[in-house]
Write a structure and sequence with these properties.
The protein is α+β, with helices and mostly antiparallel strands and about 150 residues long. Strand 2 and strand 3 form a beta hairpin. It starts with a strand and ends in a 7-residue tail after the last strand.
């Protein structure tokens, strides 16, 4: 389990997909890419999809994703992505009251329970008090990290 902080963009790709019954159907799939700008996000998702999709496709939408970090899993069964909201609990030194702040993460796992386990394994290594406020499976097909190309 590893986590990574970056600038993440959600990209929707629309194309004709050959379904299991052999018929073609127009589908829209959601992917997440690491990029510095909308332009770079479009370039990245176009490069990634070109090797998977034969024929034409369009980048239907790109928006900034609200993930603080993404928790990746090396488990082969981890084929789903879960949006999780964690609440961090801090004590205000002046008022001595508890303060909760919400942070969104994207977690790779095979099951909802696996997502919770992955969160606990990453966050357990910190000294931060947290509560898992929500975990929901997403429609995200895959996440592409930025790769620095050797020159």
């Amino acid at each position: 389990m590893r986590s990574r902080t970056a600038e993440w963009f959600e990209c929707k790709i629309r194309y004709e997909k050959v379904m299991e019954d052999g018929l073609q159907k127009k589908v829209t799939e959601l992917y997440v890419v690491d990029a510095l700008s909308f332009t770079e996000a479009e370039q990245c998702i176009t490069e990634e999809m070109s090797s998977y999709i034969s024929g034409t496709f369009e980048v239907a939408d790109i928006k900034k994703a609200a993930y603080k970090e993404i928790f990746f899993s090396d488990d082969e069964q981890a084929d789903r992505w879960y949006k999780t909201k964690l609440q961090f609990i801090t004590i205000d030194e002046k008022t001595a009251k508890e303060k909760k702040s919400n942070v969104n993460y994207l977690v790779q796992a095979g099951t909802l329970n696996g997502a919770v386990k992955n969160i606990d394994s990453v966050m357990g290594g910190t000294m931060i008090d947290y509560v898992i406020a929500s975990v929901a499976e997403t429609q995200i097909m895959d996440v592409y990290e930025h790769e620095v190309k050797a020159s």
